[in-house]
Design goal:
It is a single chain. The longest helix is centred in the N-terminal third of the chain and has 8 residues. Strands 1, 2, 3, 4, 5, 6, 7 and 8 form an eight-stranded antiparallel β-sheet that branches. It is built from four helices and eight strands. The termini are far apart. It is of the alpha+beta class. The protein has a single domain, classed as 3-methyladenine DNA Glycosylase, Chain A (Roll), CATH 3.10.300.
DNA sequence: GGGCCGATCAAG
DNA sequence: TTGATCGGCCCA
């Protein structure tokens, strides 16, 4: 395993998030190079965090040591994956939002049911990324830095710091002032930014 | 025990 | 813009 990665994940989520860009995630016979991630603080003042309301059976892995996978099921049909980071009991994590499929494209494509198979969209979006790699609840709580079914590897080539951009997180109601979404500038696999729109809000009539 | 809504996606 | 579809979590 990479000690460098282990050290990175032991740090604050917003720092770990930057370092995760360019890293490779291998699972289910395919590999993705991460192009977009989001940091979530744990119990301390991040209303968007799944751990914000305290420890529950669902989020318990977030309260453990860094480097483990927090997968969760959402909208009745989608899986998403987080990397737990920060010190134990901190419950911070980084959501893996998108990436470029750099290996096992055929495998990933076969797993996705797309009307138009655009390879750039194979892992664009957190649920798509999981779908492309076959990640689901079975990965919950597994260690990502050592030979498990889901493995995180350092970047094949270093990511230039000036390619990293940041902005508000996607789909998050609270904490809009926190620019904790990070992505690689110009990467076509980065999901489009959509400002969160409350379901029952007066639509901005133009 | 009931109801609401979510770190989403794909198609109309 | 909207339907699909399930489980966590709050409230009664």
């Amino acid at each position: 395993m990479s000690q460098e990665l282990a050290d990175l994940l032991a740090g604050p989520a917003e720092v770990a998030a930057r370092g995760l860009l360019g890293c490779r995630l291998t699972a289910g016979g395919a590999t993705v190079r991460l192009s977009e991630v989001e940091a979530y603080a744990g119990t301390s003042g991040d209303p968007a965090s799944h751990a914000h309301r305290g420890r529950t059976p669902r989020n318990s892995v977030m309260f453990g040591p860094p480097g483990y996978a927090y997968t969760y099921f959402t909208y009745g049909m989608h899986w998403c994956i987080n990397v737990v980071c920060g010190p134990e009991d901190d419950a911070a994590a980084v959501l893996l939002r998108a990436g470029e499929v750099v290996d096992g494209v055929e495998t990933a494509r076969a797993r996705r049911r797309l009307r138009v198979p655009d390879d750039r969209q194979l892992a664009r979006g957190p649920a798509r990324l999981c779908s492309a790699l076959g990640i689901d609840g079975a990965a919950y709580g597994t260690y990502l830095l050592g030979g498990g079914p889901v493995t995180l590897l350092p970047p094949a080539t270093p990511v230039p710091e000036d390619l990293i951009r940041s902005g508000p997180r996607v789909g998050v109601t609270g904490g809009h002032d926190t620019p904790w979404r990070f992505w690689l500038k110009g990467d076509p696999t980065v999901s489009e930014y959509r400002r969160h729109v409350p379901k029952r809000s007066s639509r901005t009539r133009t």
